[in-house]
Amino acid sequence: MQLVQGETLAVQTDDFEHWIGRFSRFPKVQLIDLDAAMGKGDNLALVKTICARLPCRVGGGIRSVGRARDVLAAGAHAVIVSSALFRDGAVDVVFARSLAEAVGVDRVIAAVDSRDGTVVIHGWKTPLPLTAVHAARALEPFCGEFLYTHVDREGLMQGTDLDAILAVRAATSRRLTAAGGITTRAEIDALDRAGVDAVVGMAIYTGALALDEPGAPPGD
Predict the structure, then answer these.
(1) pLDDT digits (tens, 9 = 90+) for 181-213
(2) Which CATH class for the 2-205 domain?
């Protein structure tokens, strides 16, 4: 399913074969277990099925080293970790370090989500007193990649905020993937020139950006 601003359901389907087929050309696919993220169970069996056929990085509900290991054992190439990386309004260095040591820095993708200029966690509902740039600098030793989501534009099909993304790009030497309102080939190309990978969701699901269109994203 696809949510707008993390709340409003916009796209939902149980036709997994259709989407596995459509995403089979992509070298990286982002898979989020929303049930696990919301504490309503998990879909580990389904994650395992999809990971066997697509090169997935998987997030949602990864709050412990044990859960990260389970997801990796299910076939994920890397785990996407978000809220668990923060505690008491700051980066939880102890957990971040323990996770990196347990599964390997290169298999940890730190998700830094920003809304109204500050980091948000718990499904984008809890704001923290730090910026995405500050979070990226603190987390850099413990991850191989960042996933930055500009929540202000997520799912709205109105374009993303390139300046906000490029500020995070300048703050870290790690790989960076960006999400949040990325809608057009022009935005994807601009990010690519800056060394940033793009996550495209709603634009693909709604057909606004065709997967077979020349220059369509070869990544997520």
Answers:
(1) 888 889 999 999 999 999 887 767 777 776 554
(2) alpha beta
pTM, to two decimals: 0.85
Dihedrals phi, psi of 52, to nearest 5 degrees: -70, -15
Asked if residues 35 and 62 have their Cβ atoms less than 8 Å apart, the reply is no
Structure tokens at 134: 């500050």
Domain ranges of the chain: 2-205
Q: How far is CA 55 from the centre of its chain?
A: 14
Q: What distance in Å separates the CA atoms of residue 210 and residue 208, rounded to the nearest whole number?
A: 6
pLDDT digits (tens, 9 = 90+) for 16-46: 788 788 788 888 898 989 889 888 888 999 9
* DSSP-derived pairing of the beta strands 118-121 and 108-115: antiparallel
Q: In this structure, how many other beta carbons lie within 10 angstroms of the beta carbon of residue 15?
A: 8
Torsions phi, psi of 78, nearest 5?
A: -160, 160
Q: Hey, what amino acid is at 196?
A: V
